[in-house]
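[Structure tokenization] protein backbone as discrete codes
[Encoding] learned vocabulary of local backbone shapes
[Protein] chain in single-letter code, fold in tokens
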Amino acid sequence: MTDGRTPVIDDETLARLEELARLELAPEERERVKADLAAVLGFVAQLADLPEGPGAEDLAAPERTRPDVPRPGLPRDAALALAPAARDGYFEVPRTVDEG
């Protein structure tokens, strides 16, 4: 795929992907999805062609992170006001662990 050709997604491959992703595409969507997947695979193939090793760091984006400086957090009342559910000063969430 790295030789400049556009990857091809055939009907069999698309059917397998639908099965794995538990999707059911409408007939009119199939060609568009196959073209989109081929474009993504073509882009990934281009990424695979990028150089590695010494000198590759010249292609990296410059460091753009800010220093890690502690700062005050959101006040409890403000955070709870944004929550979908709160009770007794705490976030209320569905139970995820069965007790017993």
